[in-house]
Amino acid sequence: MPLLVLDEGGALRRAGLEDYVEAVKALVSLVPVGRVTTYSTIARLLGVSPRLAGRALSLNPEPIVYPCHRVVRSDGGLGGYSVGGAPFKEGLLRLEGVPVEGGRVDRVYIIDEPEELLDP
DNA sequence: CATCGAACCAACC
DNA sequence: GGTTGGTTCGATG
Q1: Are A70 and A35 in contact (CB under 8 A)?
Q2: What is the pLDDT along chain A (120 residues), one digit of tens a residue?
Q3: Residue A103 — left, alpha, or beta (φ > 0 → left; ψ -120 to 50 → alpha)?
Q4: What is the third-level CATH fold of A16-118?
Q5: CA of A17 to C1' of C4 (A)
Q6: Which of A43, A62, A66, A117 lies in disulfide reach of A50, CB 3.0 to 4.6 Å?
């Protein structure tokens, strides 16, 4: 059963990409500076596939307001970035105090448990 | 460690 | 109907 949401008219409809974008924006805003989370974690919280989570993030090209750059792959790899690509993403992470070695973020900086995000 | 293939789900062709 | 993504996971070398 897919996720359902209410539209402006109060009618129940299937969630679309736009809805997931809203959801991921809210979630990445919870990630503290100096830490990152993963596509997998976000996907599990939303109950969608990791790919869909990535797609939702790529649809929101506002890196400053909503820090999509704090989302990396579950193996520590950077993953992609819609604006400026991975190099720009890497730069942003460094600025926030997250070291990137060999194209990877150390596991200690990664939040991969939902509770860690919800009850910091 | 590196690569491979299948599964993921909405959007787009 | 088939392809495509800011991916993942297990299996295999």
Answers
A1: yes
A2: 678 899 888 899 999 999 999 999 999 999 999 999 999 999 999 999 999 999 999 998 688 899 999 999 999 999 999 989 899 999 999 999 999 999 999 999 999 988 999 877
A3: left
A4: Arc Repressor Mutant, subunit A (1.10.10)
A5: 15
A6: A43
* Nearest-nucleotide field for A56 (CA, C1'): C6
What is the predicted pLDDT for the residue at A118? 83
Instruction: Give the start-to-end residue ranges of the domains of chain A.
Output: 16-118
Beta-strand ranges (E) seen in chain A are 4-6, 12-14, 36-38, 71-72, 100-101, 104-105, 110-111
The residue written with tokens 């942003």 in the block is A92
